[in-house]
């Protein structure tokens, strides 16, 4: 083929990237391969093929829909261009023959792709409904082509809705994980936090047994070794201050997930008020608390600490000495620094949108702990960070 | 075209989207990862594909303790050890102690098969990654025999997941992915028809109404699924429940809601007059 056929779909690729979908080269080539073996014969087919090979989670279906709609909606191709494109999509070889026979009015594939891309660009904003590339009323572009059109359908299907229109419905918006979060989602993300080491139950070591048995001249000598167990100890420190009230449900779901997961070597949780000071609370109602110093001393390299809070407070609450409940002592920021020093594998989850993170206390805390949004994506990145530790 | 097209089988109702994903996976020779709520027909899909393409199905039901290598083969070293001690059979023939796993069987098969890897998310996080090489190369090496088993035909692979754990990116990038959304009423009607061809349409409409409104309730631990709906219909028909009664009461609710907690939730809502 004279031109990289991928060019035809570059606008789609750009729009996918703009939606934050990281489409790798491998997947993109698979998509083009699918086109070349005739898996997509019309825009509906392109929509489906693209989604099947370029998107790997339903959480991104919505982003795909937006990108697809942005690329193809409102595009009104002239009959001739539509015809040429569809026939090229359907059967590149036949198209090449047709072109040689002067049937299409396009001298080359380059010219066709150029015309297509120009039309996309020109018409992008002019959202005027009516006749789109995929004729909505089931109009066939094949009227006079007279070749290879059996079984091919361009246009609305059963309900008369095309892929572009369906994409515009945003049916998958509820599946986005950058907005929705429940206990189960948190569990899935937290499960990735682990460090497997051999300890715990004894299990039969077959290789060892064979070796030993061989050395023993055939007398069976059973060898045992320790099973693999997760060494990670998780500590969850949660801000229960007033400005956290709107996020209370979200935080409690994270807490539920962490405590229900029988996955860690140990799990502890504490609450604090705006910032960590001299005391950490297991329960504010029952006044069940421990000196922060004590918790600090217990931290080991196997610990992972997750802080949850909006990190936004009056500057003196963070920077001035002796904060919190009238006790004398270091400033909040110094407590945080000490904790970080005792356990470097710590991150901060912030439920506030990132646009608020420029606030001085938020950025100061962000300097100490890597900060992530309290969304599923945020928690995933956070877990990745902690795992790498 | 070199691949066979899947167009659904009489007993399985597939959306056009799902059909294209299956066909893409077959044509591009990629594993198809199917994800979706319980009971959305993921496992059944593999059976339907095998039936529609007219090729055998080999299933591998993955468990939390499954190891990737077991899918290839297992070496029954304990048996061999035992035989060596108690002199049973020819222990020098290692082949006798090598047993092909489901994937090994699929590779060694004389004809192409559908290979179902059911509930891959139950296994350890490393499980999918451990299979990457074999998936790429379509062969594996058995050191005990000093032999390579190469696939004679690339199996049509269908992998299901309930999303208990996330699958690794590197793995997903090699697959065709499809999420089976919960069927809408029209689609559910078609699915019901497969299982209950002669169902009274008024009864079905009423039951469907109740079923979908149950699913909307917030805070259920387990939303009733397609299979529970089908079971419920069976029970309703067997017990001769009248369609009016479905509207007024919710007979045999336990078939739809299996968790004690969910029945309590519903009870609470009712007493509050919902
Ligand atoms: N599309 C469908 N066509 C026909 N029957 C279906 C369909 N979807 C679901 N069913 C019915 O629902 C039952 C459950 O389907 P299946 O076991 O394949 O679900 P699943 O997605 O594998 O669930 P799980 O995640 O619990 O394993 C099937 O046995 C079948 O009776
Ligand atoms: Mg199943």
Question: Would you write up a description of this structure?
Answer:
The complex is a heterodimer of chains A (389) and B (274). Chain A is an alpha/beta fold and 389 residues long. Chain A has three domains: 5-175, no CATH class; 196-230, no CATH class; 231-388, Rossmann fold (3-Layer(aba) Sandwich), CATH 3.40.50.410. Chain A has 16 helices and nine strands. Chain A has helices at residues 10-18, 25-36, 43-54, 61-72, 79-90, 92-100, 109-123, 163-168, 183-191, 206-215, 248-260, 292-298, 315-319, 332-342, 360-368, 376-388, and strands spanning 196-204, 224-230, 233-239, 266-272, 279-283, 288-291, 303-308, 346-350, 371-373. In chain A, the strands form three sheets. Chain A has a five-stranded parallel beta sheet with strand order 4-3-7-8-9, covered by helices on one side. The longest helix of chain A has 15 residues, at 109-123. Chain A starts with 9 loop residues before the first helix and ends with a helix. The model of chain A is unreliable at 124-159 (pLDDT under 50). The mean pLDDT of chain B is 87. Chain B is elongated. In chain B, the strands form three sheets. Chain B has a five-stranded parallel beta sheet with strand order 2-5-8-1-9, with helices on both faces. Chain B has a two-stranded antiparallel sheet with strand order 3-4. In chain B, a hairpin with a 4-residue loop joins β6 and β7. With 274 residues, chain B is α/β, with parallel strands linked by helices. Chain A binds chain B through residues 24, 26-27, 30, 33-34, 37-39, 44-45, 48-49, 51-53, 55-58, 61, 157, 171, 175, 188-189, 191-192, 194, 206, 209-210, 213, 218, 220, 380, and chain B through 1, 16-17, 20-21, 23-25, 27-28, 30, 33, 35, 77-78, 81, 84-85, 125, 163-166, 169, 172-179, 181. Bound molecules: adenosine-5'-triphosphate and magnesium ion (MG). Adenosine-5'-triphosphate binds next to α2, α8 and α10 of chain B.
